[in-house]
Specification:
Length: about 90
C-alpha cells in the first residue's frame, strides 16, 4: 500500500532525527510506529476487559432477562412507557 502523508514541521523534524539515529527508512519507522500503537491499544482494551470482568459488574443483574444485551432498547422503552403512564 502506498501512502502519501503531509507532516507538520515538528513531526518532519522528528522523523528526520529518527532516521538519523536509527538508520531506518521512513517505511520502517512508520511500520514500527503502527505496530507500537496497535500493541498499546490491544493492551489498553485487554486491561479494560479484565477490569470489567473482575469488577463483579458483569452478571450483577441476577434476575435480568437473558436477552437484555441484545434487546436493551425494547426493555428501556417499556420501562419509560410504564414510568410515564404512572405519572
Amino acid at each position: 500500500m502506498q501512502i502519501t502523508a503531509h507532516l507538520n514541521e515538528e513531526r518532519a523534524a522528528k522523523l528526520e532525527r529518527l532516521q538519523s539515529l536509527t538508520q531506518l527508512s521512513t517505511e520502517e519507522i512508520l511500520g514500527q510506529g503502527i505496530d507500537l500503537v496497535e500493541q498499546q491499544q490491544a493492551e489498553l482494551w485487554q486491561n479494560y476487559s479484565n477490569a470489567i470482568l473482575s469488577s463483579d459488574f458483569v452478571g450483577c443483574l441476577k434476575d435480568a432477562p437473558e436477552d437484555l444485551a441484545t434487546n436493551y432498547k425494547a426493555y428501556l422503552m417499556d420501562a419509560l412507557e410504564k414510568k410515564h403512564r404512572a405519572s
